[in-house]
Amino acid sequence: YNLSWLFPIDSGFQYLVRLHFCEIVQQVTKMNERIFKVFINNQTAENEADVIYWSGGNGVPVYKDYVVLVPVVSMGKQDLWLELHPNLDSHPRYADAILNGVEILKLSSNNGNLAGFNTPKIYSFPVEPSSKSSKNSKKIIFVLTGCSLGGLMILILFCLLGSHFRIITEWTPLCSVLQLCYSKSNGTKKTNISPLGRPFCIEDIKAATGNFDEKLLIGTGGFGKVYKGYINGGATIIAIKRGNPCSEQGAYEFQTEIRMLSQLRHHNLVSLIGYCKEYNEMVLVYDYMANGTLHDHLHFTQTTHTSPLTWEHRLKICIGAARGLHYLHTGTKQRIIHRDVKTSNILLDENWVAKVSDFGLSKTGATMVSHSHVSTDVKGSFGYLDPEYYKSHKLTEKSDVYSFGVVLLEVLSARPAVNPTMEDEHINLAEWGLRCYQNGTIDEIMDPYLEGKIALESLAKFVEITKDCLAERGVERPPMSEVLWNLELSLQLQSSAEADRKTDVSVLAVSIGSANNSDLTPGVEFSDIMIPTGR
């Protein structure tokens, strides 16, 4: 099971996060029986947490301390994110995680201060004494009494509708939340979105990128160019996406990206640091992903100067991306449909952890049972687009499942989703792959680098779930939870086959060594050395 919590805390402080563990399941008595990962604020705190290893035995409590710096993102509270995932790489007996308690202690700043930001003051203005007659004073008293009673009734009404009001305002479109203000210095219009991320001024963005130096350009997408940047005196590397005025994606996609990522926290989703909206510039600031995109590692290994990804490595990346999509579909108050799932939107951090990115086209899905889809204009990337959505304009989370099926096929073949230079029947990868599956010739599209390196059981499971994702009708496609389960099974089958292969090689080496020795008593040829006595 995956465990996750959000704790509201003050910005601008360091926090001591103390996690308490105690293995109380009687069957868990040895190391490596329950292994899990710990993530704090989207960073890996423990990759192989083993409570038995830490404590020395079952029923023995133990705690681990972590210090977390929470930068100033907004003047109010922000969430400290804690999540635990089972680590399946080590093949534990129990595939889940445990946590018995948590303490979060604020550490004082350099001047010994523990106070957070003050909330805005509300000023009251005294009423000047009236010089009118007592008759007018009585009228004023009646008016004030009536206003007070009316205000009390309104307050009660708001309390009764409070929960409903909060649900509505939380999902209000960003355009109605934005507050426009004017700079006193030059009269230019700025956008204040401080509750939704750290606001950067354009001067900070230019300083971080060397005035958008092309040498720092690391990618180009539908929204615009992406630059590598440096902030905090060069100590922090960031990715800066600059909107292109000529792009089809504009202010709406910019607002959608901020709204979505400010509300989402998951280890397999890219993290938004902040934004800039000045002088007709639309800029988004993200955590820097050191290993680029999955697309680059599948198609441009010469450019990235890296070896092709191994099959096990590809499976782990697919599993990470599937976890991110599963969270979007099931882990939020309203289902979120990404609508642009593709290999170039799957980023890889320094530890090769997959992060789903680019939420500019995302939509919140239907929540009522009577409404199973969202009617909307068709948007997405050619080659990954769900054909049912394209024909009917009815969007569901199964549209993401179809797009992810194309991603899986791309991972297996290292071929682009669409290749106009190929013959007609091979232009569309999804159609080509389905034909190969039906004809039993899936090896026709496999990446030559993977030949002889994939266990047949692992390949069969991977191809089966890929085929299911690409079903023509959305109702026939599996949910992302099922896709994730099958990908993890495919990885386990691959790991087991490799372990068996190593065992077979070791046994074969021993057998060969024994066969070459013709004597029944090994080592008799060197008896004078083994028994150092005179003859």
TrEMBL record:
The Protein kinase domain, residue ranges: 212-489
Subcellular location(s): the record lists:
Membrane
- Pfam families reported in the protein's UniProt record: Malectin_like, PK_Tyr_Ser-Thr
An example Gene Ontology cellular component term from the record? Answer: plasmodesma
Alphabetical keyword list? ATP-binding, Glycoprotein, Kinase, Membrane, Nucleotide-binding, Receptor, Serine/threonine-protein kinase, Signal, Transferase, Transmembrane, Transmembrane helix
Parts of the chain that traverse the membrane: 140-165
Q: This protein's superkingdom?
A: Eukaryota
Q: Which CDD domains match?
A: STKc_IRAK
List the membrane topology term(s): Single-pass type I membrane protein
What positions does the entry give for ATP binding? 241
The main place the protein resides is membrane
Enzyme Commission code: 2.7.11.1
InterPro entries in the cross-refs = ANXUR1/2-like, Kinase-like_dom_sf, Malectin-like_Carb-bd_dom, Prot_kinase_dom, Protein_kinase_ATP_BS, Ser-Thr/Tyr_kinase_cat_dom, Ser/Thr_kinase_AS
Q: Which GO terms describe its molecular function?
A: ATP binding; protein serine/threonine kinase activity; transmembrane receptor protein tyrosine kinase activity
Name assigned to this protein: Putative FERONIA receptor-like kinase
